[in-house]
Specification:
The chain has 2 domains: about 170 residues, 2-Layer Sandwich (Double Stranded RNA Binding Domain); about 180 residues, Intergrase catalytic core (hpI Integrase, Chain A), CATH 1.10.443.10. The chain is about 45% helix and about 10% strand. It is built from 16 helices and 8 strands. A hairpin with a 2-residue loop joins strand 6 and strand 7. Helix 7 packs across helix 16. The longest helix has 21 residues. The mean pLDDT is about 85.
Length: about 400
């Protein structure tokens, strides 16, 4: 759709479909792309010297105003007229353009590609997307970090800084940038790792109250229980597929694990009962294709905090609670490392990394079944389970 864009129109623009491009009559190639969720971004469409139709992002609206977007589009048009690709021209390329190039050429195929793209577009483009690469300064990294810290998200601020630093290093390696101006800067401190472990009483209250607290989300109820029973990450549990299940064993492919290594999880009878008769996607996303995203589970937990009847907790606290509970039952650290898929423990040093190739499958199953029995005792208020090495 082509029309004379105005500030009033841009502020009120909506998309009748998944996304709509509103092309500007004043500057050829400039468009305001609006998503169905109301996200608005400036893009510039042009034809390269080789005849390839290309699109570059100039930044998000309203961070980038209509006037600024037109100015950036005109600069890009000059580069095209000179036979250059504006995305790859250091003195004309903006941070937003670098983000698009970085996402397309570097992160594609990475397990964390979607998360990197999300962080870049949420944290970096709105703040410094209109800054030219030739003008980028250390204070721009500080602006990005400070904006996130003000939102009360110190860990996100640290990761955004790491994303920006990695992207600039990539640009230097490619020749898009002469040097990385933020080299030598200290990244934001992040936050102290959480130490929250649910007590037996909290486990009982949470487990038995899930049906009422999350009455509209049976999938989230089951995911929470499985996180606590198996000690696995919420994203791994939420992304479970039927093809990963083989009897009493769940095999998580490396493409879905944090460290990129395939991980097997022995399933206790309690875990199998919670999984039930799975469909192809065990926990489907009702608002889209594929499995329920971990972020959706986290949002559900956050919104229902007051209904759980216990102090604030997160999905990752369930993993910590499970591993701590198994440790209390006498499970050896090396076995806990294998259950958690922590290779810093299981493959530390020459001995474990090279010479010890035992996968501890039997020990993992014994530990997880022992923990499941202990959980059932906690939930019902019954007797304790005898720990490993204890006399009966």
């Amino acid at each position: 759709m082509r029309l004379l864009l105005t500030d009033r129109f841009c502020a009120r623009a909506k998309s009748p479909s998944a996304q709509t491009d509103y092309f500007d009559e004043t500057v050829s190639g400039l468009a305001l792309r609006v998503s169905k969720h109301g996200v608005k971004a400036w893009t510039f469409i042009y034809t390269t010297a080789s005849g390839k139709r290309s699109r570059m992002t100039l930044g998000r609206y309203p961070t980038i105003s209509l006037a600024t977007a037109r100015s950036l589009a005109l600069e890009a048009r000059e580069a095209v007229t000179a036979g250059l690709d504006p995305r790859h021209r250091g003195d004309a390329m903006t941070v937003a353009g670098l983000v698009e190039s970085y996402v397309e050429k570097h992160t594609t195929g990475l397990r964390t590609a979607a998360e990197i793209k999300r962080r870049l577009h949420r944290n970096i483009v709105p703040v410094i997307g209109n800054v030219k690469l030739a003008d980028i300064h250390r204070r721009d990294a500080t602006r990005v970090a400070d904006a996130i810290t003000r939102r009360g998200a110190p860990v996100e601020a640290m990761r955004a800084f790491e994303d920006l630093r990695a992207m600039l290093r990539w640009a230097v390696a490619r020749g898009d940038l002469d040097h990385n101006p933020i080299n030598g800067m200290r990244k934001p401190p992040g936050s102290k790792p959480r130490e929250r472990v649910l007590s037996d009483e909290e486990i009982r209250t949470l487990w038995n109250g899930l049906a009422e607290a999350l009455g509209k989300s049976a999938s989230c109820q089951r995911i929470i229980k499985l996180c606590l029973v198996t000690g696995q990450r919420v994203g791994e549990v939420a992304g479970m597929r039927k093809a990963e299940l083989n009897g009493a064993t769940w095999t998580i492919p490396g493409s879905r694990t944090k460290n990129g290594h395939t991980h097997t999880v022995p399933l206790s009878p309690l875990a199998i009962k919670i999984i039930g008769m799975p469909e192809e996607v065990v926990f489907p996303n009702l608002e889209g294709d594929g499995p329920l995203p971990a972020s959706a589970v986290a949002r559900t937990i956050t919104r229902a905090q007051e209904r759980f009847g216990i102090a604030h907790w997160t999905a990752h606290d369930l993993r910590r609670t499970a591993l701590t509970g198994m440790a209390k039952l006498g499970v050896a650290p090396i076995v806990l490392g294998h259950i958690a898929n922590h290779r810093t423990t299981t493959k530390a040093g020459i001995t474990l990394g090279v010479y010890v190739q035992h996968a501890y499958e039997r020990e993992k199953r014994e530990a997880l079944e022992l923990w499941a029995n202990r959980l059932q005792g906690i939930i019902s208020g019954g007797a304790d389970v005898v720990s490993i090495g204890s006399k009966r």
